[in-house]
Amino acid sequence: MSAPNRPKDGKSGGGQGRPPSRGGPSPKPKSSGPAPARRAPSRPAGKAGSAGAPPRRTREDYPTVQAFVAIGANLGDARAAVTAAMDAIGTIERTVVTARSSLYRSAPVDATGPDFINAVVAVRTGLTAEAFLAELHLLEEQAGRERPFPNAPRTLDLDLLMHGNAIKDTPALALPHPRMRDRAFVLKPLAEIAPDKVPRAALARVSSQVIERIRD
């Protein structure tokens, strides 16, 4: 164990420094006021909380809204395309996937080609509805989506169903999606992950549409 620190002026009993005066012990100096407050130790520069380096923000720190995306495909390996799209949506800037539905198989509605594989994901995103939709369109293009004619078979189809409480009706974007309540392939997977978003009456109206949950 180390010895306690000693004053540097030699006034301890160690014998070094000036000897005490012959007239007895020196009187204690009078206090000139309250002792100065101790200064808090300064933090090292560059760490979180210091003035020169604000803490980093993660994607979850940004203000976000809840949104829902319908996913479908009926060309190529549709099942793999839908599963990959679920993962890809989670890589969009300031976006986190919070829930995924099961996969469903459905007959085409107002479309042609083989049966569709469908799903719905819930996300939290800090992007505007328009910016988020643009990212979804980019994922479609990367998956080889082509639009030779309306409702053509597709390698990947991503529809923005809802974005928070937004209500929009523009040539580029309508929210909530205007046909979502007419489609069993949207309502069934949506009801699985967000039952509060799908009224029972809406499910009843699409009960005649052919759709099957795929069980692994």
Helices, strands, pairings?
Blueprint: E1 65-73, H1 78-89, E2 95-100, E3 104-106, E4 116-125, H2 129-142, E5 157-163, E6 168-169, E7 174-175, H3 184-193, H4 200-205, E8 211-213
Antiparallel strand pairs: 1-4, 1-5, 2-4, 3-4, 3-8, 6-7
Task: Give a verbal description of the structure.
With 216 residues, this protein is α+β, with helices and mostly antiparallel strands. Helices cover 19% and strands 19% of the residues. Strands 1, 2, 3, 4, 5 and 8 form a six-stranded antiparallel sheet that branches. The protein has a two-stranded antiparallel sheet with strand order 6-7. The longest helix is centred in the middle third of the chain and has 14 residues, at 129-142. It is globular and about 40 Å long. Mean pLDDT is 79; it is low at 1-29 and 37-50.
| Total DSSP E strands | 8
What's the tally of helices?
Answer: 4
Structural class per helix/strand content? alpha+beta
Parts with pLDDT < 50 across at least 5 consecutive residues: 1-29, 37-50
How many angstroms does the end-to-end distance come to? 67 Å
> What's the order of the H and E elements?
EHEEEHEEEHHE
Average pLDDT value? 79
Characteristics:
216 residues, alpha+beta, 6-stranded antiparallel sheet, 8 strands, 19% helix, disordered N terminus
Quick overview:
The chain has helices at 78-89, 129-142, 184-193, 200-205, and strands at 65-73, 95-100, 104-106, 116-125, 157-163, 168-169, 174-175, 211-213. The protein is an alpha+beta fold and 216 residues long.
